[in-house]
Amino acid sequence: MGEIQALASHLLNGLAYGLLLFILAAGLSLIFGMMDVINLSHGSFFMLAGFIGVSLADDLGFWLALLATVGIVAAIGLAVELTLLRPLYNRDHLDQILLTFGLALVIEDASEWIFGSTIQSLGVPAALSGNASLLGVSIPAYRLAVIAVGLLLGAALYVLLEKTRVGAIIRAGVSNREMVSALGFNITAIFGGVFVFGLALAAFAGFMSAPILGVYAGLDFEILILTLIVVVIGGLGSLTGAFWASLLIGITQILGQAYFPDLAALVIYIVMAAVLLVRPQGLFQRKYA
Amino acid sequence: MAAQTQAGQKTKSLAAAHAGTAAVLAGAVGLALVPLTGSTYLVSALTEILILSIFALSLGFLMGFPKLVSLGHAAFFGVGAYAAGLVAVHLAPNIVLTLVAGLVLSLMLAVVIGALSLRSTGIYFLMLTLALAQMVYVVAQKWESVTGGTNGFTGIPYPELFGLIEFDRASFYYLVLILAVASYFLLRAIVRSPFGRVLVGIGSNEQRVRAIGYGTRGYKLTAFVLAGAVAGVSGALWAHHSGIVAPVDLHWSHSAEALIMVIVGGAGTLIGPMLGAALVWLLENALNPYTERSTMIAGIVFILFVFFARNGVAGIVRNLWERIRR
Between chains, do A98 and B306 touch, taking CB under 8 Å as contact? Predict the structure, then answer.
């Protein structure tokens, strides 16, 4: 394989990785934009979905397991929202952030308890098990599917938020919560809906990435930190920002691992520091928060 | 009428302050008696708790008064520990040298991280401290020739003082105890100084403080650097106590642990975070023989504190105290 082909294949891998990050970051960013709360348990739900997916996939098959996993995680998210988060809505945002942090600790330990601490992996569906060839570059078909799904989901999110009535209400809620509430919308229900939707996205990303990254204890915080970096670079609450920052971080991460394996872990932090030095509010944030 | 209630409040808070000082000193005296029991386990455990309580105290100062919630505080602890360890092994295990090395290096790091992260506020600040501290973590992990990489830097001896004192387990415990009490009173004096009043003002309404004409960023940076330096000292002590420094000591989970200590102990006070350090340590270590689920229990306890006792142990104690007085 020539060097150009190798580079192209790294780029495609980075694209797939970045799009997975985007699905996570979109949920995190949406929840933040809506509630001013950074959900520090976002990575935990991502990991949880991976574990649940692995244990369901044998019996249900890949696609049904994907649906079931997203459903189960969303249900857990709804329970969390109703019982833990909702009572804190009239408190300081810091309390809600701290709550999600405590939750992350509980989920981390609970999943180690239930699912064990060994790395688990999920097989790809038979239809996507081979290699596909794109412009002369060979790439696992599953990753190509992840790229397609990520792009489609990004487009769907864009349409949902920018072109539909629900999206208009959410965007209005992001910029002025009280006003939306005064116009007669049940803002608490909207909060809950956005939170659960964000977690469903995290679950989807968690399941889809299980065949690529594997699932293991510690994945939760690893991915959370990456996602936080993405939203900080992109600008909190900005979907467009999350998209470009995800691609930047995903591709940087994969290229770093390929060409500077010793410094790979450092490269993304350097990118983040560089971006924030020039624009402390992130690439796509107009309003300084 | 208003003046009367204010005066009343003042005497009350003055009495509470004296009671607080008395309680701290009594606690210190009590702790000073522990080595007499002859239990080496107890002395070791308390040394560890006291070092962590200095670490938690420094973060509590930042979170409680200028209300800067940092998630990268372990960087200063870890860098202080590495600095002290390196000096002790390569130069001399003189306690003055190692403490100063830990203090100066963590102070310089705090200037850099503070200057970068204080450009932002709130959640951005939290994440910037997190990311920058993780950067330091990666450096500690990768710079193997100096730090020993993932395995850590080992063989750090107990310190000595210019040939006068060769510290051993018990005397080192006293050193840590003295430094813990000293850090508490130092930070308390700072909080009560005019400088500290400005920090409190920044914590409750930064815009207003800026409107009066204070350059709040300088104040915040000074507080951040101060907290970093104190954390560096606790890290230096940690290096001597455990004999090893590893990248995990500056991993962000260690920062998170300090944050838990502050919340459980009670942000907004100085003694709270120290008590929180003890409580969290006990939760983690006392439960270990009985259950492997100590992280989960710690998480649940943390959630309960967020829900029901937002002012932490210190808040609970204060409520009880006021109920007794009434």
Answer: yes
